[in-house]
Amino acid sequence: MSWSIRIGSIAGIRLQLHVTFLFFLAWIALSQGLLTGHAERALGGVLLILLVFACVVLHELGHALTARRYGIRTRDIVLLPIGGVARLERMPDKPSQEIVVALAGPAVNLAIAAVLWIALGRHVAPDVAQPVAGDIIESLLTINLMMLLFNLIPAFPMDGGRVLRAVLALKLPYVRATRIASLVGQGIALLFGVAGLFILHNPMLVFVALFVFLAAGEEHAIVRARATLSGLPARAAMVSEFDVLDVSDPLRHAVARLMAGSQQDFPVLEGDVPIGLLTRAELLMGLQRSGPETPVGDVVARDQLTAEAGEPLEEALRRMREHRRPALPVVSGGRLVGMLTLENVSELMLVQKAMARRA
Predict the structure, then answer these.
(1) Which of its termini does the chain have fewer beta carbons within 10 Å around, N or C?
(2) pTM of this prediction?
(3) Angle at 237 (CA atoms; ends 234, 241), nearest 5 degrees
(4) 234-358 adopts what CATH topology?
């Protein structure tokens, strides 16, 4: 995710912090009295937020480690001011598995709340620090119970929305189940928005409502797109007429081809073998750093990332998203035969939808 900083890894899963989270911490410190001399109260507020987000990380790890049991990897966990996101490579194939993965996060919050309840009853803190520690433990207990209940609301992207979709998918086609669950989620988001604006006068609730509404619609769009592309090979969406570059070509050749047409990304060959893709961003960076006479081979990322012409289009797109590539060279028998671009995939989806409506 853009604007994110990697801060480590847990169980082999990257942990990233969105930069807005740092602004959020600063706002908490200031609002708790840092500028007015109440440093202890400000630090206490920041400490509580950090502990809350530790619970958020554990919640997302619950999803990620449960998904791993079904052979699904997690690209990373991103911490945002409104919570966390475990970005799974894909959702489970079976509705029963999706239910288990979705409920794993709230189950972690329930377990944390149980531990905090026991700790609160046993007075685990020393006598001097007991009031402060007790307040923090009590606040964490309340927050974890709120996280549990909030995530079980049947609205995307909350876990309850995914459970609702999975339950519906036990009897209905997956796309239709997603549409129903998305509409339910957007309806709940509208209720949140109305309550935040006119009843509670809470801007944060309005922001959450907007996030839920957009996320529910996006989930439906993604599932519908996957259904449209299901069963198609990569060659169905590839561009067959395109320019290529050799590793020995100077960057000015790439500039000339960029300006002459609409192509912005160029497969780079070493002999007849594709070794990478020179993107528009890499071209501009190379020009800025080294000048127009620099060989393309000195600038291009030699990742040899390609798509096989006969592989499922969904798999090729997943690889593009994972590596954040705007396009992929398409090969057949080791020979470059085309280029897969997001623009062409969008065009193919429009064609498929038009044909489906005619049928």
Answers:
(1) C
(2) 0.74
(3) 110
(4) CBS-domain (3.10.580)
